[in-house]
Amino acid sequence: MDKSSFADPKFIINGAMHDAQRHDSAHKHVTGSADYIDDLPEPVGLLHGALGLSDRAHAEIVSMDLSEVKATPGVVWVFTGKDVPGINDVSSNGSHDEPLLAEKKVEFHNQPIFAVIAETREIARRAARKARIEYRDLPHWSDIDGALANGSPLVIAPMTLQRGDPKAEMENAPRRLKSQMRIGGQEHFYLEGHIAMAIPGEDDEVTLWSSTQHPSEIQHIVGHVLDIPSNAVTVNVRRMGGGFGGKETQGNQFAALAAIAAKKLKRAIKFRPDRDEDMAATGKRHDFLVDYELGFDEDGRIQAVDATYAARCGFSSDLSGPVTDRALFHADSSYFYPHVHLASKPLKTHTVSNTAFRGFGGPQGMLGAERFIEEIAYAVDKDPLEIRKLNFYGQPGSGRTLTPYHQEVEGNIIARIVDELEESADYQARRNAIVEFNRNNRYIRKGIALTPVKFGISFTMTAFNQAGALVHVYQDGSIHLNHGGTEMGQGLYTKVAQVLADSFQVDIERVKITATTTGKVPNTSATAASSGSDLNGMAAYDAARQIKERLVAFAAEKWGVPPTDVVFLPNRVRVGDKEFAFPDFIKQAYFARVQLSAAGFYKTPKIHWDRAAGRGTPFYYYSYGAACSEVSIDTLTGEYMIERTDILHDVGRSLNPAIDLGQVEGAFVQGIGWLTTEELWWDDKGRLRTHAPSTYKIPLASDRPKIFNVQLAEWSENAEHTIGRSKAVGEPPFMLAISVLEAISMAIASVANYKACPRLDAPATPERVLMAVERMKKV
Predict the structure, then answer these.
(1) 3-state secondary structure of 365
(2) pTM greater than 0.70 (yes/no)
(3) 765 by DSSP, 3-state: which?
(4) In whole angstroms, what is the distance from residue 746 CA to residue 753 CA?
(5) Fold held by 466-603
């Protein structure tokens, strides 16, 4: 076999890669046999933990009486921040601004102050409510308006992106407008809540099972709170019942609390908050307030953009820096801004610290850009799709390829995606029919919108763009796979197994997928930024390459043939004129003492970023897509229905079309929830009141479009050297749901005969839609 073929992940024979293989745990999910942490056999002597939470949004702790808590029958230990052996901090970015347990001051309602360890979970939870804590209240604000009014500090240094001379071009623009948009947050609402189980070992060792997207960070945090080295901490993750970013950093506190108690009491400890506590005490998607000024010409072509993105970040920095950065990175959506100034404003609020959520700030930035387009379209009396096309990034040489962060947009296929969807969805004829329908109907109005997606793929923190994998080939030809990515239902394990099966040309059933563990692959990055398959697939491929090179050298020497005559075929290996079944070939290699194990590694090339300068190449490539949605609204109640959605999405050369289609469909529905039904609300005491399914409304199956057509762009192939020439699929399709909000907006605009932009904020709840309808009646 020609060794040059090892170098290109596009080299495919057996077809395991790019096949529509089923999710490895799909049958377990539907039968209820998939083991999550709470399904594992409980160790003898297991104790349960519960959180003692604050009932103030911002206050000094004057005194704390835990005597009744400790006296509760069944309570084994109660501990506070003073009992933390190491550093009482679980901040993910080294800022030391997020105490594991608050000691002198609380900064949000339901902040953990102490922990209770008891014989049962129920005893621990009931005991935690018996604390007597005296507070001295301090001023608090829980939203962006309150933060701005009170001169709130920023949780992290802001970022600015600038290109050209936006101030001068704004003044010279034929048309200008200025406004703002409010964009709501979102609760992750994973099916499996946060959970951690710690089992103490000898000396300083501790083993944890944690529902986390970032095992290495849990390892790091637990080491710090226990004051032990990372090599004493092992973190295991087989699967999560959903993550969506909510388990990137937020699992830190539960794992750390469990580990402290386990080492102190020398017994296994489990922490599992209920849904209300989980929602109240863990972070969410950031709310944004976008203030913008636009300069454009009479045709609707953008000349200048000046926008500020203020975000509700919560009491600590968490991931607010990179989240608000990514919002700016995607404030251009798919559009070229000749002159632009963008600034972030990550505001401190007395609420739980917001965190990662699918899209990581990108959806908020992109939604703002689509509002810009909508504003311009109504100002010049044109179809928003026409304005979108007019302002798309161009092809190389057009002079319209440079982003606000000075990266060239290469491999741009957004125009083709949109054109194909416009035709297949019959957009123009349907829009004309809808305009006619609205003329003849007083109470029911319809809207349609076709919106694009351009999403940058890579961690903007360059160091995170690396991955490792460990591959063993056993004597019987079975293969053991372990890598740093975590499985949260998205099919990552299946995709990486496909890569390995394809590399060795064996059936995928021969590849054993094992739980992610810090004891096998060290220093892993979070499974986030849509990069799980890109990074871990390449790392597994690299491990397979090393083993195959050894096998080729062994066969060439043993049978006296050139290396090019050693060829891996489906489930067998040809050596010259001989053929061996794969297990027989591996057995012979073992007896010849060939190393059949390898640690693979991959780091994303070409990327670099200078945050202070606002310049660089933070993304390896872009994923594209488009959605066309049609809605109906009731102008008397504000209620609406999604009549039809057509999607064409770019995943490059799909590693697994079945899984990728599922990801596109699921992301779209989750995006619908963010933009329509899911509303977070804090009262005047800083208490989150939407903290359960009774008050927080995620989409139901009945909320999906009545007609739902989803296609992958089968002609697309990543121009960059990714695994199998595929593209990421986790986050980009989330923004396809913007088409629903834009369609609702068009339906509202019909009330005023499309004379004004409705300026519909998100989420577009029926109440908000009704208020927008009433505003349009006055235009």
Answers:
(1) helix
(2) yes
(3) coil
(4) 10
(5) Aldehyde Oxidoreductase; domain 4 (3.30.365)
DSSP bridge partners of 569: 572
**Rounded average pLDDT over 321-338:** 98
In this prediction, residue 15 has a pLDDT band, given cuts at 50, 70 and 90, of low
The pLDDT value recorded for residue 7 is 38
Sequence-ordered alpha helix ranges (H) in 282-426 = 320-329, 362-380, 384-391, 414-424
Q: Tokens 């399709």, residue?
A: 733
Instruction: Kindly state the DSSP code that residue 607 receives in the 8-state scheme.
Output: -
For domain 288-393+400-460+610-777, the CATH architecture is 2-Layer Sandwich (3.30)
In the chain, residues under CATH classification 3.90.1170.50 are 45-138+194-272
The radius of gyration of the chain's CA atoms, rounded to the nearest angstrom, is 27
Q: Note the CATH number of domain 45-138+194-272.
A: 3.90.1170.50
Active site residues: 731
**CA–CA distance, 195 with 48 (Å, rounded to integer):** 11
Residues 644, 431: contact at Cβ < 8 Å? no
- Asked if 81 contacts 155 with a C-beta cutoff of 8 angstroms, the reply is no
Contacts of 207 (CB under 8 A, 6+ apart): 198, 199, 201, 233, 234, 235, 236
Task: Pinpoint the residues of the chain covered by CATH 3.30.365.10.
Answer: 288-393+400-460+610-777, 466-603
CA distance 356 to 690: 19
Look up tokens 């933990």; give the residue: 49
Return the SS3 of 499: helix
Backbone angles phi, psi at 226, to 5 degrees: -95, -10
The whole-angstrom separation of Cα 371 and Cα 449 is: 12
State pLDDT tens for residues 280-322.
Answer: 999 999 999 999 999 999 999 999 999 999 999 999 999 999 9
Model confidence at 14: pLDDT above 60: no
User: Quick one: the chain helix, strand, coil %, rounded to 5?
Assistant: 35, 25, 40
The span from the CA of 503 to the CA of 540, in Å, is 9
CB of 661 within 8 A of CB of 250?
A: no
Q: What is the DSSP string of 565-587?
A: GEEEETTEEEETTEEEEHHHHHH
Q: What is the mean pLDDT of residues 478-499?
A: 97
CB 487 within 8 A of CB 516: yes
CA-to-CA distance for 172 and 161, rounded, in angstroms?
Answer: 21
Three-state SS string across 622-638, please?
EEEEEEEEEEEEECCCC
β-bridge partners, 456: 622
Q: At what angle do helices 582-591 and 532-559 cross, to 10 degrees?
A: 70
**600-644 confidence digits (pLDDT tens):** 999 999 999 999 999 999 999 999 999 999 999 999 999 999 999
> Distance between CA atoms of 449 and 764, rounded to whole angstroms?
15
Q: How much is the pLDDT for 18? A: 87
Distances (CA, A) of 259 to 96, 166, 218, 379, 406: 19, 53, 10, 59, 45
Looking at residue 10, its pLDDT comes to 41
What lies within 8 Å, CB to CB, of 426 at 6+ separation is none
Q: What is the 3-state secondary structure (H, E, C) of 91-140?
A: CCCCCCCCCCCCCCEECCCCCEEEEEEECCHHHHHHHHCCCEEEEEECCC
Residue 8 — very low, low, confident or very high, per pLDDT cuts 50/70/90? Answer: very low
Residues 6 or more apart whose CB falls under 8 angstroms from that of 607 comprise 458, 462, 465, 616, 617, 618, 619, 620
**Distance of alpha carbon 224 from alpha carbon 739, whole angstroms:** 45
Tokens 């550093």 found at? 87
CB 764, CB 741: distance < 8 Å: yes
Between the alpha carbon of residue 440 and those of residues 446, 455, 747, 753, 773, the distances in Å are 11, 39, 13, 12, 17
pLDDT tens digit string along 718-749? 999 999 999 999 999 999 999 999 999 999 99
Spell out the residues 6+ positions from residue 16 whose beta carbon is closer than 8 angstroms to its own.
498, 499, 501, 502, 506, 507, 508
